[in-house]
Amino acid sequence: MEAPYPDHRCSLYLEAMINDVHVHKALVDTGSSINIISLSILVVAGVPPSQITKKETSIASFGNGAKTLSGYVQLDLKVGPIHSLTRFCVLNIDVNYRLLLGTP
């Protein structure tokens, strides 16, 4: 059986639900040690800022740069049949993906 897209280096995007809000372009990155969500997606999902546990921490990003976290948030995540309470790091960034899923 041959795959229709033989370039296995393409990013893997999934569709997910965050607090019953449909989110497309959830990027799976098994090399990442954290899950990331942007602040703008939290606003769309109706998550109030009071749910964010404030903790300013720097993390390494692409290109050896550093980004400062706004904090952490626990969200109800559903991807296909998997449904769990998931911890996300909140970043105020503009990226191509809506969620970065790095840890199970």
From TrEMBL:
Taxonomically, the superkingdom here is: Eukaryota
The record's PANTHER family line, in alphabetical order, gives: GAG-PRO-LIKE PROTEIN, OS08G0508500 PROTEIN
Instruction: Give any GO molecular function from the UniProt entry.
Output: aspartic-type endopeptidase activity
- A single Pfam family, by name? Asp_protease_2
Question: PROSITE patterns, per this entry?
Answer: ASP_PROTEASE (PS00141)
> What GO biological process term is on the record, naming one?
proteolysis
Kindly provide the name given to this protein in its UniProt entry: Peptidase A2 domain-containing protein
